[in-house]
Design a protein that fits this description.
Number of domains: 3
Distance between the termini: 13 Å
Strand order of the largest sheet: 1-2
Largest sheet: 2 strands, antiparallel
Radius of gyration: 24 Å
Structural class: mainly alpha
Low-confidence stretches: none
Strand content: under 5%
Order of helices and strands: HHHHHHHHHHHHEEEEHHHHHHHHHHH
Mean pLDDT: 89
Number of helices: 23
Shape: globular
Helix content: 55-70%
Length: 449
């Protein structure tokens, strides 16, 4: 059975920082619960970060300036402007990634960050193009983080109607076939967002919805689009694009024609038993290694339903489960989890975060291949190439550590001394400090959580 201090810091958290294993030893469960009740403040960069609408506004201004120069046949200046705009997208994306990782590395409440990352992955917006690279970080800051200990319904509404999600899943131009504007334009209604809301964000595959329910939800989403400059590029509702008339979803008729309709539809989905089951199954798989028993999933489902989707109560319930503290299996860390846990384990690591490392490891950050996010299965990240890249990165980047950070320090502070006799033997060899630290960070005990 895994030591409870390691469950608290590594399985439920993002990895132990120096002193955390000792701090939580006497009451690991209470130590994690205290993080939910009193989360640490955000780093200053995240508190001051620009909103999605401000970022879109800046992009729009740059594009207008570029168009003006092109019309004026100032091609050289226009080319220079275009390169600056593109460089700005890349720089902003890298900056957002750096802030995200800095928060995860420095936070004394790492369960909160793991909980946050879980929900971000569930409501994935992938930075597949320059526009999304600009706003994906803002999406997480605005639609996910404010609600991680609030009501699931509020998170569902905020994420579904955020301009980044509207753009990502092509809802901005979706027009109801019976809408006022449909008679004058060739616009079509789009089911992408409705499909992912049902399949990924709420009820899940096999949750009991039909193709007709997807269509009805997509009708409810018609008219929701990104505003123009006069409305600060926020999401707005355009009534002339919205599907007229009543329609049914999951056996219920929605008659109100207007912005209230989608709020009612999403609210009903948030409270649905299949949504509770889907979320409970995902939580159990992420936070409890191995194959969680049906009773664990049942318990989480009941908590979700009884509290009306109160995510703070759900987090406390998860932490309080006996199964969470009697884990024997381990989960192989994803590349982003490995990078964060390594930087948490070793103090004064001065190397700046480089998103290229995660990309080389097979996980281009905030750029999942689809709306289903990154795989939750640790086994999906185990391959020879991945291991070799981790090894090479560590060998190159440990030079900045102070001399007093050695293998003995690592074993005690990162793993609480809970290593196999084989690992302990390897780390006691007469090798250079960086070689020993690399072996420690690549040990089975550290590669898994």
């Amino acid at each position: 059975m895994k030591p409870q201090a390691l469950i608290a810091t590594n399985t439920l958290g993002m990895g132990a920082r120096p002193g955390e294993i000792e701090a939580c030893k006497s009451d690991p469960k209470g130590w994690v619960m205290a993080q939910v009740k009193n989360p640490a403040a955000l780093i200053s960069e995240l508190r001051r970060a620009p909103s999605a609408s401000d970022l879109i506004k800046a992009r729009s201004h740059a594009r207008k300036k570029l168009s003006k120069r092109l019309r004026g046949k100032q091609k050289e200046a226009a080319f220079s402007d275009r390169q600056k705009v593109l460089s700005g997208f890349v720089a902003n994306h890298k900056q957002e990634l750096g802030w995200r990782f800095k928060q995860a590395v420095q936070s004394p409440t790492s369960f909160v960050e793991r909980w946050m990352w879980f929900w971000c992955n569930r409501f994935t917006v992938s930075a597949r193009d320059n526009h999304l690279k600009m706003v994906t970080g803002a999406f997480e800051r605005e639609a996910i983080r404010p609600h991680i200990f609030g009501r699931f319904e509020d998170m569902l509404v905020a994420s579904t109607l955020h301009p980044a999600m509207i753009y990502y899943l092509d809802n901005g131009k979706s027009v109801g076939p019976k809408s006022a504007i449909a008679r004058k334009s060739k616009g079509k209604h789009n089911e992408n967002l409705a499909r992912e809301v049902l399949e990924l964000h709420t009820m899940g595959v096999g949750g009991g919805y039909t193709i007709d329910d997807i269509t009805s939800l997509s009708f409810g989403l018609t008219g929701w689009t990104r505003a123009a400059a006069k409305d600060d590029y926020k999401t707005i509702f355009k009534r002339n694009r919205h599907q007229r008339g009543a329609f049914d979803m999951l056996g219920k008729t929605y008659e109100i024609v207007g912005p209230e309709r989608i709020h009612n539809m999403l609210g009903d989905l948030a409270k649905h038993k299949s949504t509770a089951r889907h979320i409970a199954s995902n939580l159990a798989a992420h936070f409890i290694a191995g194959r969680p028993q049906a009773s664990v999933i049942d318990s989480l489902e009941n908590c979700f339903l009884e509290t009306g989707g109160d995510l703070k109560e759900l987090a406390l319930h998860l932490i309080g489960l006996e199964a969470a503290w009697k884990q024997e299996a381990w989960i192989f860390k994803r590349p982003d989890e490995f990078i964060v846990s390594a930087k948490r384990a070793l103090p004064e690591w001065e190397e700046d975060f480089n998103p290229k490392i995660a990309k080389l490891l097979g996980q281009p950050l905030l750029q999942a291949s689809g709306p289903d996010g990154w795989s939750q299965r640790g086994d999906d990240w185990i391959n020879t190439e991945n291991i070799l890249i981790r090894l090479g990165w560590l060998r190159r980047s440990l030079e900045s550590l102070p001399s007093w950070v050695n293998a003995e320090f690592f074993m005690e502070e990162a793993l609480g001394g809970h290593v196999s006799s084989q690992t302990a033997k390897v780390l006691s060899k007469s090798l250079l400090r960086n070689e020993l630290l690399t072996l420690g960070l690549m040990s089975p005990e550290f590669l898994r959580r």
